[in-house]
């Protein structure tokens, strides 16, 4: 099975930019909150490690995505098994203030005022969502989160 990976590539003042891969295929950019040694609720990206992916059909966010994407949506893609985290979904958004600890999808990125943001989030979501659902249904439900070899430091203030 092809490994699903989130590779962290850059840090902003309050944001972390990552790449999402399925095997060797780059699928999209991801935006998360800052990397922190101690978790601050809603302001900290998920820690490095290996976790499980599943389709969550019962959380409140699911009710927002079902009518928005009726032909695509089969449940929120949830990252589970993260110590001290719950309801971590891969979803749409552009700014670190919209993550609340979840990875946001993006087609490309930019840096503004020392922080990263992802753009064309819905397009990236519509591309990567069926790929991840297919992997989950095949039993490939593990995701590895790791630091890239050249993780850029936060910009100077």
TrEMBL record:
It comes from the Bacteria. Residues 5-132 form the DUF5675 domain. It holds the Pfam family DUF5675. This is DUF5675 domain-containing protein. It comes from Parapedobacter indicus. The lineage of its organism: Bacteria, Pseudomonadati, Bacteroidota, Sphingobacteriia, Sphingobacteriales.
